[in-house]
Amino acid sequence: MTVLSRPAPSGPATLLRRMGRGVGALGGVVVVLLLAELVTRLEILPSRFLPPPSVVIVTLVGELGTPEAWWAILDTLRGWAIGLGIAIVIAVPLGLLLGSSELAYRATRPIVEFLRPVPSVALIPLVFLLFGRNLGDGKIFLAAFAAIWPLLIQTIYGVRNVLPTQLDTARSFQIRRRDVALKVVPAQRGAVSGHRHPDRLHRGADPRAHRRDRDQRRRHRRADQPRPRGQRRGCDVRVRGHVRHPRAAAERRVRMAREARAEVASIASEGRVMTTAQREKGRVATRRGGWYVAAEVLLPVLVVLGVLIFTNTAGSFYFPPLQDVLVAFQKNWLFARIPVDLVPSLARLLSGYLIAAVLGVLLGVLLGRVAWLRRQASPIIEFLRAIPPPALLPFTIVAIGVDSSAKVALIAFVCIWPILLNTMDGIAGIEPTMAETARVYHIRASDDLLHVQLRAASPQIFAGMRTALPLAIILMVISEMVASTDGLGYFVLQAQRTFALADMWSGILLLGILGYLLNLVFTLIERGVLAWHRGARAAAR
């Protein structure tokens, strides 16, 4: 008997309920605007730094009445759409390939982890030198470079986190690999988008889709239906690969029983002896591990050799020879400028990141547990996280100043959103049976929060923190390029202005190494904290 999930309710009542939620969310926005108007009118916050929302709205309406504003908006949307389209075309197929092959993933992981922390803003000096006055192509290049890494990483993680039962089911029904990549993998929550609205996590299944799937499975099963004696199989019927001869299945059961008896006998005699299957499995794992390590070392070496050959033969002013870049790296970063530029940058990065992690987890837990508050805050969160970080630089400089506190505040403001959204998604998406079990056993609210809910949501929380780590590096460089006297961003910008391209590339190289090392440290911490999660997934596989 086929058991279907309860379909999502529909009708006038559901429509009115959704309209009420929308009006409630809009009411939250109105309340925030009124509070901001009151705070600025009473000069609790200086109006010269934060003008009243009414003044901002009137100014915006006036600017939208000019054709120059609309041409600027269209030009921005054009660069954004083209850059995002290029990133999608490159990142999604490449992520599907790397996520579905362990060897390809291991081989390219060092290169990806080295390149993705490099901020696109750090390439602005090079873009100015390469494209000159043709800033349209430069904007498209920067937009594509910035968007390709989150898309690639989320696609890889989404493919690698597909449940093994889904892949086994697709394999047993002989679904083609192309259909698996297009239908099974995107069904994994957050495979490419990285975030799903918490209110949409528990919707019922579509009964029409279930009927279509059921009819399709019945068509596939016709090959296994009994036939009258003497009737031959048609030429259009294929024998399934997983259906074995009864004699082979019996022999396999006998062999497994012998191995089980041998293992029990070895344990009884206090001398643990590995079975043939275990020894073969260990040899296969050892061989695969050797191939993975070789690929993880060989491909980066080949890439470095390719860069060395290209820079020595191209003779380009913008791409100095690799040995010159390494000499500049040794001169600047081993260890002359480390206390001057690297240490202040790391202090700002870690301070802003830790502030964002603490606030993001606390607010995410609160919004994840309180549904009505989550609906009220969602429009405000979506608006604030969509503000480009460079657009906040003038405000932070004017409101806070040019010291390190402004840079830390900017890093924390941008890094908080992925942590907040993933925490909220993880808390709201906990299975109801877990909450019911905790209630039945009379577990205290504090223990339920710390040991049940946070533990169940910790994989998604760490996913948000991993996403925020490259953002912290990017914002560190952006904040140090404006109104700063030290830091990696300041060093890269000054090297471009003085046409010291070897020094500029040495700073970019240091950013890549820094991002790779920080990601390595974060991975080690994540493996230690989420050891139970990795063990559960390994057991499921």
How would you briefly describe this protein structure?
With 541 residues, the chain is mostly helical. It contains 21 helices and no strands. The longest helix has 39 residues, at 276-314.
Overview of this structure, please?
It contains 21 helices and no strands. It has 541 residues and is mainly alpha-helical. 24% of the residues are buried.
Secondary structure topology:
Layout: H1 12-41, H2 53-64, H3 67-100, H4 102-115, H5 124-131, H6 135-160, H7 164-172, H8 177-184, H9 207-221, H10 246-268, H11 276-314, H12 322-333, H13 338-369, H14 371-385, H15 389-399, H16 404-428, H17 432-440, H18 445-480, H19 488-497, H20 501-529, H21 531-540
Helix pairs in contact: 1-14, 3-4, 3-6, 4-11, 4-20, 5-6, 12-20, 13-14, 13-16, 13-18, 14-16, 15-16, 16-18, 18-20, 19-20
The main pleated sheet reads as: none
Oligomer type: single chain
Strand content: under 5%
Low-confidence stretches: 1-8, 196-211, 217-225, 228-244, 267-273
Shape: globular
Distance between the termini: 27 Å
Return the average pLDDT rounded to an integer.
76
Q: SSE string, helix = H, strand = E? A: HHHHHHHHHHHHHHHHHHHHH
Q: Compute the gyration radius: what is it?
A: 29 Å
| SSE-based structural type | mainly alpha
- Assign a percent range to the helix content: over 70%
Helix count, per DSSP?
A: 21
Number of strands: 0
